[in-house]
Queue: 4 jobs
Job 1
Amino acid sequence: MAASTLRIALVQMAVGEVKTKNVARAVQLIKEAAGGGAQMIVLPECFNSPYGTTHFPKYAEDIPGGESTVALRDAAKKFGVFVVGGSVPERDGDKLFNTCTVWGPQGNMLAKHRKIHLFDINVPGSIVFRESDCLTAGNTPTTFDLPHCKIGLGICYDMRFSELANIYSKLGCKLLLYPGAFNMTTGPAHWELLQRARALDNQVYVGTISPARDTSSSYIAWGHSSMVSPWGEVVSTCEAEEAIVYADLDMDYVAKVRQMIPVLTQKRNDVYELTTKT
Ligand SMILES: NC(=O)CC(=O)C(=O)O
């Protein structure tokens, strides 16, 4: 494989009620994906806990130090891969966050992203959800570097905010990752559309990573973990059940798309400008 190519695995894992089983399953799937040649393995949002405000306090842990992130650290080191740990509910003092950690092959923590945009929605007759009832929002965009490229992180609802993706592209990211758990209302309507929009606007690869669908759960995840190219095409995907989605990302292709349609260098910063505050 060329040095500019990154083999990534998006792990759409089944998440149940028992935290230790969820963590063990994540480690098993990391092992399987590493065996499939993946250099970076990404887990879904809330991989150690069912998704829901009643569950978050019960499953929350300190980061680092809690059992879930220790397991990710050890798995990254044991299998010699980069691990993007979807998210877990994080406890910090009396606050809870929805947090993603990233681990390098030496077991070093490369990044920690706290979900910036909390999922507070009301679609009458379909779904009401208020993460802010129990979670606190993060305030910081998060990037980390692989030998292949810079990567920007968002969690689920963060994908709806184009400004965050624009900032990542401005910072030089060529891949954006969104562990996420859309549902049976917003999933079919918006999941792929948003992912392709973020990819096309910023001429980056965009990966989404969902838990597998569990129809017995109070919050039913849409699934369909996918990778979209900088041209806006879905290059790898799956349906709703547990799956590992592999994709070989070609960083030369990112440069090629940006050269053919150079929107990133044609921005009119004399007319408008995007800035970060943290
Ligand atoms: N669960 C989320 O954070 C977001 C989501 O389901 C949606 O935006 O739709």
Note: The chain has one domain: 5-265.
Job 2
Amino acid sequence: MIMKIGDALKVYFVMGSTNCRDLDPEKTLYEALEGGVTLFQFREKGVGCLVGHECIYLGNSLRKLCKQYKVPFIVNDDIELAIELGADGVHIGQDDRDPLLTRKQIGHDKWLGISTHSVEEAKQAVKDGANYIGVGPMYSTKTKADAHAVVGPELITQIRTSGLSDFPIVGIGGITLENATNVYKAGANGVAIISGISQAKSPEQAAAAFRKIGEDSKSKSLQDFCSKLQKSSQ
Ligand SMILES: Cc1ncc(COP(=O)(O)OP(=O)(O)O)c(N)n1
Ligand SMILES: Cc1ncsc1CCOP(=O)(O)O
Ligand SMILES: [Mg+2]
């Protein structure tokens, strides 16, 4: 699958079976894809999550759905599962596993995402060969019990101005339709969302609304850029 990672990050849906509301995980992902999510992460984690064959079975179904919609499929934490499912990449946190070893295991044609919570971690992740970084939590979240302290969208701006002006960045944590614009405005390529889509009454409508915010923010940033350019050449 050839796609620019910065574009894929625009609306990044993260989900496992324990995150869903009325619909089963396949139907939830189907709706999210119909709504226009641009990247998916299978994150089967937490109390009551599927393990073993059941996890592989669900992973395979979700992987197939993503293929149908030509949306890249990332696996959280579990490199063996990622390889088994033929994933397009893996996402690891600071305490999960060694990024260099992970890269060796997955090869250079797969995407590696690394979670970061400071400018220093962001720079180290880039050195360690990340293809993108997740920055968060942007806002407080009920979805991840052991989440890091809130860092806010300001951290994305700090990372951008610290020299990573073009590196693919996605914000995560507590992102809603009300606050997503702040994350794009801070300089993120995209937003990563669990409950904002999986717990919505209509995951399809929520995904479509996030997608619209992403598109509008992009054209707004482009307008801002052009007017800055115009002013500087006057
Ligand atoms: C896109 C994205 N960013 C951050 C995370 C969090 O990863 P981690 O800190 O390893 O926590 P868990 O998700 O493993 O609980 C993520 N999954 N995705
Ligand atoms: C996985 C993860 N990593 C940092 S916050 C978070 C949870 C995001 O879930 P939600 O979008 O429901 O706040
Ligand atoms: Mg992890």
Note: The radius of gyration is 17 Å.
Job 3
Amino acid sequence: MTTKVLILYYSRHGSVTALAEKIAIGVHKGHAEALIRCIPPLDQQHECKHPIVTMTELAQCDGLAFGSPVRFGNMVADAKAFWDSTTTLWIKGDLIDKPAGVFTSSGSLHGGNEATLLSMSLPLLHQGMLLTGIPYSEPELHQTQSGGTPYGPSHVSGHHADANLSIEEQRLAISFGKRLAQLSTALKHN
Ligand SMILES: Cc1cc2nc3c(=O)[nH]c(=O)nc-3n(C[C@H](O)[C@H](O)[C@H](O)COP(=O)(O)O)c2cc1C
């Protein structure tokens, strides 16, 4: 059966969406299926580019990439509320021993990009997931002048939240997706 990697994210202005779509390219390169899904928004008026995730999709994924914009140095409230709604799945242990990673976008270079990635990892660890980031064997990790971290892919969108992903940010997101797909397949067949 094909490996399914769930790319679960929230985005208001499109930067996290852009990263999610690059990660999906990497997942395909890693010969897995990418399921791009949105976190249910707290604001019902908020429109999302992809379908809203279901708990069944989350429970049945083989790997997970979780994305959120930086909000005051932390994940967006919608993402925290979503994880707070996963108690049933947590008790069943549906995500235990599945690979996972996190990605984000901030407005400024030192605006909490890495702190947000680390705090986003916490609910995944509580779910029993196996975290992966990006190793320094990826040359763009040494070269980037904006986003892209060992803790996971990231983007710096600028004061007006309109900067395109840099080449380095794109490549790191793609290599992260590929890595997650390969790890998910390896663990699925064990
Ligand atoms: C309420 C709020 C808080 C924010 N806090 C931060 C912050 O702490 N640091 C930062 O660099 N950017 C901050 N930003 C900017 C967003 O993180 C940034 O625009 C991000 O790229 C948005 O991602 P999106 O395009 O996927 O919505 C904040 C934006 C909002 C609306």
Note: The first strand starts at residue 4 and ends at 9.
Job 4
Amino acid sequence: MDGDQGQQTALLKKRFVVTEALLQVPYDPIAYLERASVHANLGYPDLAAGDAYRALLLTDEINNEGFEYHEQALEALRSRCKGGVPVILLSQNPGHLESSGGVERTAESVDEDRHLFEVNRTTSIHCYQRLAASLLLCGCLKSAHDFCSRGLAASPDNTELLTTQEHIHVVARKRLRGDDVDMNDLPDQGLVRREIYPWNEHEPNRFSHETIDFLNAELVKVAPKCEVKIAELPTLIEGLTSTESHDMATNKQLGLFAKEDVDPGETLLDEYSILTVNNRLKESLCDACSTELPNLGPGSSVVGCPDCEDTMFCDKECLARAESYHPAVCDKDVDTIAKDPDPKETPNALYLLLLARALAMAQTQQCHPLELQEIKYIWGDFVQGTPSTVSLSPLAPSPPIWTLPFSFASNIAGPLHILEKMDVDIFDSLAENDLWIFNTLYGKFRGTASARVNKRDGRVEVAAVHPLWCLANHSCDPNVRWEWGGQMRFWCREKRIDEALGGIQKGEEVLSHYCDIELSVKERREWAQGSLGGWCMCDRCIKESGEGSE
Ligand SMILES: C[S@@+](CC[C@H](N)C(=O)[O-])C[C@H]1O[C@@H](n2cnc3c(N)ncnc32)[C@H](O)[C@@H]1O
């Protein structure tokens, strides 16, 4: 084991110990700060920010007697101060705590309440420091600036916060390309690592017999002529063409294949997904499948939830399917969250709504969110084995690019707000509601979700993950068409792109399309690049771009 690896292993062990401690004592702000430090050292500034934010919330609980977790948080802090001031607060002493050789004077020597109040104040300033520095590293400049300002309001001479503030200004000038930076216009969308975290025990081996058998048993119900198999796909790199790389690397993934011959026009898959959301506050869409509700009036099939006002479903079937998520949000005032967003925020808002739906499903079904069968097996476009530190060795591979979109609002504050609305204790449910779990869910949704526009005004309003449909890979000469109404439907094309008769033979891969195939090769490649991870290299693209012709 080399030095870097040894350090990594030690940090992961430490992370495990602190997480276990938090599962035992969930309201301990110090343990959260400790875990933030471990996450920062492991190279996860996003997770460090998430922990520091939870610690900050707990310091608020301690400060406010009327708050829900005041007693538990105060007791946790008191217990941590029994042997003196916790070491994590002594590394940099932003409050004016007195220390004596690493161990503070004990509670007997001073008024205990005053002492705890001071420790709590110091803890909160540490939280601001950690939040500002970590969010800056993630590229969330506005949130970093906000926490920096809040920290400086409490501790104006704090050198760490002043330094971070300087860095925020430098990065902001670079990103906004100018010296005149308005702090209200700071970018707040960043990128973080997109990976299967080393401690994630929920991710299945997608190529195991167990996974493939499970998916095939599910497929029998909605696509009896399809089966899932391992597929070899070209490894796509942004802007790389086949003339530049004749030896194209490939990678193993899953794909859909025909088990029997399929006739032109024949339906191949018909999938209903409860993992469907819409962002319209006052539109008449079904809460379960987000289809436009049928007309109300005599004989209408529309039904409402018997227990809460305003939640409407197409029919009794959708109401019955809603039993898998609705009880967690029934009458819980979650309706307005992420609805009618600013157009710039539409994608983020839809992903947050998908996350909210998944959390409601998990809560209702008393299941870990990553164990939900609609989520467990889907593609997440994760980058494996990301090193946490950049190696200086000339032989080291270049560090992977961070690809998971991240913001304080979507990844940290938003999900916690939703859980609180659902009456979930965000501290005592860490095992199910930790930030790395939200990030993993986002990775999966961003790898598989599709969106739909409102035909009347062209606004994107619905998003969904169809866990079986999304197993199909892309081609610009697809052999199926798809249509998404209440259900997602694939049917075999009557004609292929060259006007040849459609039809899929037994054993052939079922190829969908992720972009409008009527476009030119350049436009198609630009459109599909986001969902493919690079320039499309299907036979049609290679032919039309003139690549590989020599
Ligand atoms: C929605 S998933 C498709 C199913 C996925 N192969 C799986 O294992 O579940 C989309 C991902 O499949 C891969 N993919 C799909 N079509 C491809 C193609 N024509 N060439 C290369 N990769 C493709 C890309 O990695 C893309 O990010």
Note: The longest helix spans residues 112-138.
